[in-house]
Each structure stands twice: as structure tokens, then as C-alpha cells.
Amino acid sequence: MHTNHRITPLALAALAWIVFADNAHAQPATAAGNEQADVQALMAQLETLKANYAQEVRRLRELDMQVQAMQARLSGKAGGVAQQGPPLPPEPARAPATATAGAEGGYASSAAEAQQAKQAARRSVDDVKQQQQALFSRRFTIENSLTYARYDRKQLTLNGFLALDAIFLGNIGIENVESDSLTYNLAARWGVSPNLTVNMDVPWVARRTVYQKGGAGGSAAAVAEEETSGNGIGDIGLSANYRLFGERGWRPETVLTAGVTAPTGREPYGVDWTVLERDDDDYIRFAVPKEQPTGNGVWQANVGLSIVKTADPAILFANAGYIHSFEASFDDLDGNPDTVNPGDVKLGGSYYFGAGVAFAFNERTSLSISFSDKLSARASTRYRNGQWMKVIGSDANAATFNLGVTYALNQKTTLVSLLGIGLTPDAPDFTLAFKVPYML
Fold first, then answer.
1. By CB neighbour count within 10 A (0-12 exposed, 13-18 middle, 19+ buried), where does 239 fall?
2. Are 214 and 226 in contact (CB under 8 A)?
3. Omega before 252 within 30 of 0, i.e. cis
4. Cα–Cα distance between 410 and 176 in angstroms, integer?
5. What's the whole-model pTM score?
6. For the ranges 194-208, 260-274, 410-424, which has the lowest average pLDDT?
7. What are the distances in angstroms from CA 14 to CA 10, 18, 20, 35, 367?
8. Count of CB atoms within 10 A of residue 85's CB?
């Protein structure tokens, strides 16, 4: 059975209306989506063009300043103004930059100002590197520093024996030594080449020490006290820094340090003593040196390695090394003022290490936090025609926690302040130092 299907005009009109309604509803959504995508694409292209434009403008200005400087040198007018080139396109709008010496924001108007701006941008980083002996871009630097250190040691001494496991028979003595030292150091640092610097340190030391001893006259309540002082030139040091590797990528800047210290200060051996108290059998109970020493009395050589890695805004640094003391002979080693015993002294070797981090807040200021430690082996003495003997209690572990602030006073001068807090009994209670490096 065959059936004919015929579309009536009314059905055709209804179908057309449905199709028209669907298209009218879908077209705005599609058009809106396409326009949003086009806007995002155009914004991305605009940002890319802006970045490329700013980079090209910077390169053009740098090249223009280099050409001006070269023209000034060729014409023999180092301080004059070179011939101006064609006008450069204006730089696109950007956030205001921090003003630097010679150029109040933006770009420098001359080669000299451009160099000053470049130096200011890395000033705080360079100042931190200078303190870590890892800076080679400065031709010659003179550094004046003043350091104050405070020591306070208390010790209980017992001279007698214990009776019936409960009663102590003898003398109980309390010894206290308080020492204040002030050191002025004049240092000169000369950049021989881009990878080598030579340093010389000349210290002047002033010391004041107060000795207190309890149990004077056999009475635990009696305390004897005596104060001595001394000042003079300290041990002069000469050292050199050689850059093994420059900072590149993940690799830090690595510097090798080697130096020698001469015994130019007053040695602590063979000094005159003042006897304050004797026993009935003429045994010396309390004696102090008449003058404080200003040096170690022996030649010393040191070798070390330091590394510095910049990770803006942080600067990571670490160092480690060894100090060797050479054997020396003296006319008197005994601390007894009634006897003279010549002999030899050999100080124990010392290992030192430390690490820390500094933060460059801006082109002038940085803050550093670090830890340092120095481990010294026991010293040995040998009287003439005798055997070497270890000096009990001469080994030391001096650990210090350090805080430092560096501030650039001007283009050539920096103020460095350091606070060290002793963490072990062998370290100073605290140290306070101020350094003023001046670049010539």
C-alpha cells in the first residue's frame, strides 16, 4: 500500500520558525565567545609588543650612552658632553624607580650617570661580598674598623681534701677574670687583577683586665682584686684572595684565601708579674701580669675557602679554613715571677668555619645573619732540654652568632655594623664592631 507524504504550507511555515528561533538564540553566545577570545589574543600581543619595545628602547639608550662616552674619550674631553645622536623614542610608561645618585629615576642622561646608576643597583650586594672577602671589582679600598670585645670568666678552685666523705678541709677560692678589649684596625685592600686582591691589616690593641680572687688570706669571704692594662700594636697580617670560579648559574663565586700573621705585638710570655699574696711558706697565692699582651707571639699561616651565591634578594655565603702556628722560643715560659724557665711554645692548630645569609633591602642597605666557630687544639710547651707537654685547658671552642647591617653612606663610603654573641664559654660574651670601607 503506497502512501504519499505531503508537507502542507502550514507545516513548512512552523518548521521555518523553529529553525530561525534556534539560530537567533545560539548566534549571540557564539559571537560573544569569539569576541572574548579575540580580545585576549590582542591583549597578549599588546603585552608582548610592549615588552619588546621597552627592551629595544633600553638597548638604544645604552648604545647611545656608550657612543657618547667613546666620542668624549676620542676628542680628549673626558668630562665634556659628546655629540648627541638622533632623538630616541620615549620609553613606555612604567612604575617609578628608586632614585639613584646622578639620576633621579628613569635612565641616566650621560655615560657617567649611567655608570653610577649601575653601581648603585649592585651596591648592597658588593658591600656584603666585600665583608666575605669575595669582591674584586674595587681597585683600592681603605678600611677603618673599631671592635669592642667583652670577656667574663668565673672559676671555682678547691685546694684541700674531703674528710669523712662530707667535710671539705682546705681553701675554697673563687677566681673571676673580666676583660675588655678595644681594637682599631687599619686595612688596605688592593685589587691587583680581576681575580686577585692583596690585603694588609695593621691592628692597634688596648686591653683592660680585672682579676678577682676569693679566699684571700685563707678566708672564703675575703676577695682580692687587681686591675692591669696594656696597649700597643698587634700582630700584622698580610693575605691574598684569588677567585677560582665566578658566579654562573647554580655555581657560586669561589675564592681561595691565603695569608700570614707576623708576631709584631707584645707576646704573653716572659712578662713581669706582680705578687699580691703569699702563704707562710712563701707559696704565691695571687699574682697578676703587670702589662697585658697585644699579640700571640708566634708566626701564623692560614688558608681558607669562601663561597658567595646571590639569590635575589638573598645572598648566601660560607667559609672554612685552617690556621697553623709555628714553633717559637722564649726566654721565660713560667708564670712564676720567682723563676726563669726558657723554652719553646707550639700553639695548637685552629679550624674555623661559618655560614650565613644576607638580605639586600635596597641599593644601600643589607642585613646579614651568620654563625661562625673556631676550634683550637691544645698548645704544647717544652722547657729547655725537656720534653713536649700538652697544656691542659688550652684547647678551645669559640662559637658566635653574628648580626650585621651594611649601609652605603655615599658612592665611595660604607658603614658596616656587626654584633657577635658568644655561644660557648671560650667565645667572647659579645663583640661590637664598626667598619668604614672607603673606595679610592
1. buried
2. no
3. no
4. 45
5. 0.67
6. 260-274
7. 6, 6, 10, 33, 81
8. 12
d(CA 329, CA 297) in angstroms, rounded, equals 9
Neighbours of 293 (CB within 10 A): 18
Return the C-alpha cell found at 214: 676569693
The tens digit of pLDDT for each residue in 60-76 reads 777 777 777 677 667 65
Widest CA span of the chain, in angstroms?
Answer: 151
**Structural domain spans, the chain:** 9-81, 120-150+181-208+231-281+288-439
Instruction: Choose the CATH number for 120-150+181-208+231-281+288-439 among 3.30.310.250, 1.20.1540.10, 2.40.160.40, 1.10.1840.10.
Output: 2.40.160.40
Question: Three-class SS of residue 32?
Answer: helix
For residue 182, the cross-strand partners are 148, 206
CA nearest 334: which of 287, 264, 298, 277? 287
Within 10 angstroms of residue 57's Cβ, the number of other Cβ atoms is 16
Which amino acid would we find at residue 238?
Answer: L
Give strand pairing partners of 320.
305, 353
Q: Report the DSSP pairing between strands 343-346 and 380-383.
A: antiparallel
The set of cell numbers assigned to 27 is 548566534
